[in-house]
Write a structure and sequence with these properties.
Layout (H helix, E strand, L loop, with lengths): L5 H10 L16 E4 L2 E5 L12 H14 L7 H5 L2 H13 L4 E5 L2 H12 L5 E5 L4 H9 L3 E5 L4 H10 L5 E6 L11 H10 L2 E6 L14 H4 L9 E5 L9 E5 L1 H10 L1 H4 L6 H16 L2 H19 L11 E7 L1 H13 L2 E2 L2 E2 L9 E6 L6 H16 L2
Parallel strand pairs: 2-11, 4-5, 4-6, 6-7, 7-8
Antiparallel strand pairs: 1-2, 3-9, 8-9, 10-13, 12-13
Helix pairs in contact: 2-12, 4-12, 5-6, 13-15, 14-15
The chain binds pyridoxal-5'-phosphate (PLP).
């Protein structure tokens, strides 16, 4: 390993304030978590609806284990696809108003599987510059001509599409951008995709469960159909509070993925108990719109408070409310000062975000109280006053 110079490369990361390390949590996920033996209020989880530790979800998971054991034993196409998996797929198809849905073990794998199954060397993919890393990796791995357009810039996308001579074209976007919290201009992307005969894929990891009247996500918020957005991907690790992901679309899309998506075929099916827990989350999401309403109230409260403090928020109406810091070390220092006051808000640094765009990524949960948000605002005031 001598030639790899690992130590000096690690040292360099430290000097640049880019070294990453893990915090060890010793409690269930939620608003109040235990970190290094100490209770803190958590403002950086993606558990937007507070379902990761919900009693119904836990109970469904336990019952699932009693019924199916722990491991699924094999891939879906061998003997790992249980009734519980199948039922969840049917429920997701109905919830998203699509022909069918297909489960994947993680969102990362869903994106890898779909994109590499649908496009190859003669084709082209067009991705928003701020798309999630898994979409970027999938686009690159597919072998298709890989083109990125400036964030939300539909004009530039159109120019690139107009010039493209690719056999198949695919436009790929996050529904809600994970580090910025803003929503993709889906109405314009739909029009553009139709004009240039490109397939549109939306990754709704952060919108699914949170946006739309019934919680069906960004597609519902924009009132779009399968014809508008043929490929929809969503995950369960965020608002659903469990783990895994799905792709929903036409009968032919799902059958194609079953035949061709390598991250579907060559991996062990997720434990059936996870699908039981996810079905329980879905029931809560459908029956308790008040969780989404509560989130909206907290978002407004946070935005107003942060503006009053003179903090720079980003143009987001979702539970992702980043505070722009710019400098990496400043973001780290303020995150540290918040932690000293009992609030966990992580600093997001390059390469996750562009250079000079380091930020504190505040995320809100329906389980936060207005008092929690007030507490965070007070802590932010203290942390940003002392330079
Ligand atoms: C979290 C996330 C993923 C990955 O999902 P996992 O299930 O955590 O692998 C994919 N896309 C986006 C936009 C995400 O935020």
């Amino acid at each position: 390993m001598k030639n790899f110079e690992l130590k000096s490369a690690l040292e360099l990361l430290k000097q640049q304030g880019l070294y990453r390390s893990r915090k060890i949590i010793d409690s269930p996920q939620g608003v109040n978590i235990k970190l290094d033996g100490r209770e803190v209020i958590n403002f950086c989880s993606n558990d937007y609806l507070g379902l990761a530790n919900h009693p119904h979800v836990i109970q469904a998971f336990k019952k699932g284990v009693d019924q199916y054991g722990v491991g699924s034993g094999s891939a879906h196409l061998i003997c790992g696809h249980s009734t519980a998996h199948h039922v969840l797929e049917t429920q997701l198809a109905e919830f998203t108003n699509r022909d069918r849905a297909l489960l994947f073990s993680t969102g990362y794998m869903a994106n890898m599987g779909v994109i590499t199954a649908l496009v190859g060397k003669k084709d082209a993919v067009f991705e928003d510059k701020l798309n999630h890393a898994s979409l970027m990796d999938a686009g690159l791995l597919s072998g298709a001509k890989f083109q990125r357009y400036l964030h939300q810039n539909v004009d530039q996308l159109q120019t690139k599409l107009a010039r493209s001579t690719a056999a198949k074209k695919m436009i790929i976007t996050d529904g809600v951008f994970s580090m910025d919290g803003d929503v993709a201009p889906l109405d314009q992307l739909v029009t553009t995709s139709k004009k240039y005969m490109a397939a549109l894929m939306v990754d709704d990891a952060h919108g699914f469960g949170v946006l739309g009247k019934t919680g069906a996500g960004v597609i519902e918020q924009f009132n779009l159909t399968t014809t508008d957005v043929p490929i929809l991907m969503g995950t369960f690790g965020k608002a659903f509070g469990t783990a895994g992901a799905f792709v929903a679309g036409s009968e032919d899309l799902i059958e194609t993925l079953i035949q061709k998506a390598r991250t579907y075929i060559y991996t062990t099916a997720m434990p059936a108990a996870i699908t039981k827990a996810t079905s329980a989350s879905l029931t809560i999401i459908i029956n308790e719109p008040e969780r989404r309403e509560k989130l909206l109230v907290l978002i407004k409260q946070f935005q107003q408070g942060a503006k009053a403090l003179g903090l720079t928020l980003m143009p987001s109406e979702t539970p992702i409310q980043p505070i722009l810091m710019g400098d990496t070390k400043k973001a780290l220092a303020i995150s540290q000062k918040l932690l000293e006051q009992g609030f966990l808000v992580t600093a997001i640094r390059p390469p996750t975000v562009p250079k000079n765009k380091a930020r504190l990524r505040v995320t809100l949960s329906a389980n936060h109280s207005e008092k929690d948000v007030d507490g965070l605002l007070m802590a932010l005031r203290k942390a940003t006053l002392i330079k």
